[in-house]
């Protein structure tokens, strides 16, 4: 049996009933795929008879040796980065497809599939326009780390974290969708589901807005640096462009409004699964929690580099919250006024 027979919404969040009985399928899956070969009917039956969570997890593990080998051959460690915006939606669509194939109610899951696709479109577009898919493009942070970590240790880091942990992480943040799949025949779509969909879309829009504001700033900055003239079609002053980083718009409220929105998407998905199952918490929250931890560590490292590059960044850190806006204190606007007074 591919999925458990459950009678209550709370039972859908029971790890012992919805996950543990199916772990053994992971061991048998490679051999079963080999036996099915290229037979579409056999593969379809295998897909329907395998627990969807196990299928998704197996796929995340199968990706590990692929990205590992490619990264080591090319000495480019942004292979997971290139599929970061795609894999979560692929997993979500997998759960939705499984629900459709099993004849389950899919109104809630279909809404999630649309939102997840919009999320992917936004993040993929932003990564593309910044040159992420160009040959040789790599996250600058990997290059910095290689200067401090010797090759053997960096290889271990690549295996354990870059290739393995990150691939599994992108699977785990979608685990709440599995719980919502199990709850589909038990809990009907409600008005509250619309609130969750609106919240998710709101966070995606917030991330898009923050990305666009950042893009507008850096476009103006690069033009200013190449011509020594403030572009005529920009609202930024020469002092703001000289600073090197944006401190206006959403970036006056949060140092990383795009990161805030990104994390909120997956925390909201987890909260949605809790609501659907009438639980205050459930095991699928480990994915959202790991995502938050990754963003804390990644942002710390990013800012460590940034504060060395831009003198005013430490002032920005004191006056503006990392993710959540500060409820009191002086923002960068007041600092700009002080600079202008001193310059007169």
Structure class: mainly alpha
Give the uncertain stretches in residue-range form.
none
Helix content: 55-70%
The gross shape turns out to be: globular
Distance between the termini: 76 Å
Report the sheet-strand fraction: under 5%
Radius of gyration of CA atoms, rounded to a whole number: 23 Å
Give the tags.
344 residues, globular, 70% helix, mainly alpha
Q: How would you briefly describe this protein structure?
A:
With 344 residues, the protein is mostly helical. The protein has 16 helices and no strands. The protein has helices at residues 15-18, 24-36, 40-49, 52-74, 79-83, 87-101, 107-129, 140-148, 151-172, 175-183, 191-227, 238-243, 257-276, 285-309, 313-319, 332-343.
Structural features, described:
The structure is a single chain. By secondary structure, this protein is mainly α. Helices cover 70% and strands 0% of the residues.
SSE blueprint and pairings:
Elements (H helix, E strand, L loop, with lengths): L14 H4 L5 H13 L3 H10 L2 H23 L4 H5 L3 H15 L5 H23 L10 H9 L2 H22 L2 H9 L7 H37 L10 H6 L13 H20 L8 H25 L3 H7 L12 H12 L1
